[in-house]
């Protein structure tokens, strides 16, 4: 086995462990009210313009039927709303409601407490944490480029303009 193959094996193993450890190390989801899929979808919808089911499916690389099964209960719970395409397209788009954004904010605070606990227990310096964040962001952006995905990484602070939502 050559050095490059060894590095790839090590990288694959460490990424697999990261996925498993990160969720477990943050602790229980006690207090969080959103299903994991709702949390992920709201996080994506918060980050940019409204999206169709097809656009969401492409973003998460799943079938439209899978996204539909995840979005439907969110729609019934008032976490997202279906709106006409602002660009005049035929497909309806989805955006988070004020309630959805509030529930996301509450769950995110709990998640951030877990992430902070993880960083504190590893005794990482601010520099180490920032370096890891930079490398992880570069890795995710490279994956997105390979998969033909784009993700706006700067969440918008605006909320839906309809006060009824």
From TrEMBL:
Highest taxon listed in the record's lineage: Bacteria
Coiled coil region boundaries: none
Transmembrane segments: none
Gene Ontology molecular-function annotations: DNA-binding transcription factor activity
Stored InterPro entries: HTH_MarR-typ, WH-like_DNA-bd_sf, WH_DNA-bd_sf
Residue ranges of domain HTH marR-type in the record: 35-87
Identification of the protein by name: MarR family transcriptional regulator
Organism: Streptomyces diacarni
